[in-house]
Write a structure and sequence with these properties.
The structure holds 2 protein chains of 2 kinds. Helices cover 33% and strands 4% of the residues of chain A. By secondary structure, chain A is mostly helical. In chain A, strands 1-2 form a two-stranded antiparallel ribbon. By secondary structure, chain B is an alpha/beta fold. Chain B has a domain at 8-249: Amidase signature (AS) enzymes, CATH 3.90.1300. Chain B is globular. Classes of the chains: A mainly alpha, B alpha/beta.
Amino acid sequence: MAVSLKDVDKIATLAKLKFSGTEKEKLQKDLNKILEYIDHLNELDLEGVEPLENINETENVLRKDEVYTWLTTEEALKNAPSKTGKFFKVPKVLDK
Amino acid sequence: MHSIPQSHKEITSLIKSGELTCESLVRQYLDNIHEQEDLNVFISLFDSEAVERAREIDKKLKDGKAGKLAGAVFSVKDVISVKDKLLTCGSKFLSNFESLYNATAVERLLNEDAIIIGKVNCDEFAMGSSNENSYFGHVKNPVDKTRVPGGSSGASAVSVAANMCLMSLGSETGGSIRQPASFCGITGLKATYGRISRFGLVAFASSFDSIGIFGNNNYDIGLALEVISGFDERDSTSSDHKVLNYASESEKNFDPKEIRIGYVKEYFEEGLSDAVRTGINEKLDVLRKKGFTVKEISLPSSKYVIQTYYILTCAEASSNLSRFDGVRYGVRSENSDAVEEMYVNSRSEGFGEEVKRRIMLGTYVLSAGYYDAYYRKGQKARTLIRKDFEKAFNEVDYIISPTTPTTAFKLGEKIEDPLAMYLNDIYTVSANLAGIPAISVPAGQDKDGLPFGLQIMGKKFDEAGLLKMANEIN
């Protein structure tokens, strides 16, 4: 299951990352080397084995549904790269 | 470098006899920090604030009102929140980010009058085994400055080993406390998954991550552990399992006749250096002579732990790190006219190479067509790994192994070969895969004087036993 340069482009799009031509080639090489190693897992007999989805075996940890003040709007905006009034500000979302 | 008391007990008794104050202790640490700036340990230093807090605690001590960590000075890995301080995660992306609250572990330390002296360097988002993946530069091993301190909590280990503080809070996903503890010649504990609240720890792989402790001795680590452990309603995966007095527990003795110790056959096969092999075998002999039952056990899934670990942690990381989009915090790219472009540019400019590589691998194993072939398979392999440990813990009470295959490697030696770097974690990732506690204790040095650690793994929530067993090694 070798990763092609086209696959690298596709994964990058999904991951919202972009790479230069040389970076892509290095990534392709690295990913293939790592995946080749990972493919040793195919030696394991996993027939009938349940996937482990919850490491600490607790279920449905509930808390009271209560309103409380955690962060103020001002605090929540403290680290914003761009803001306007009570809002986070971003570049335009739609082209006109 | 000043000689500085190496344990909380010694500090407490020197304070009591009037030979030391918290303030003078903090000043000594600050001197050591400034004299060793070339090690590149601190990202932010709370110098004047720490001195001021030390004065307050000196007053509390005089009034007999001090908490149980009075006199204990900590550094905190820069992936853990300290209110109003930078929280960079060793990343350009968060290089200007300030925490809005304290992590629960930090809050609990402060409530018992610990002093935090600063935030320390680490691999970006805790991804790495050498502390070479930080936007703020690599960290050097104080034992040999041409070598890595280990990672990802490399600077946490160095801060303790180089007498810049008494203890450090670090974090682990696959060995990021135990491996640097081993490379720097100190003790590092990763507790059971859920023992310590993760609230305020920046997420890397949520089903693996845990906060842990570096120190010079088992008693100190026990003391910090009993303070920061316990259920926290802000982390629903934290456990309400009873918190013990780990410090005093650590000093109790085992009846060797009642304790069975296993060493893992597969861990002593290829890849293990001679110095480490000999050192660990000597320690096993010591335990045999003390009367412990020491027997060989097998963990057949050992061959598959690195593969399983990288599938699952990269998958979780790709999901966790999707929040870094440049909208609400972090460094936003200035080269974007539209929002989609802004996400992509901010992420691509803000993350370093290793973080991007892992996001890419994680995205791949979760993508349509590969989910069953990789991610699902990884989860099934994780079940087998956990079952191997359950079976082993029916036969023995503790499992002893090397912490790392070798002593600290050279700076730059493995940075171009991600797979070689990943294989460094071969003995440590299992504890995170199985969710069990593990500790690395100093076990010796190779012919060049480079330290290595011995790892003890135990049953879930048997931290007290781990610390007692660690005392048998020291």
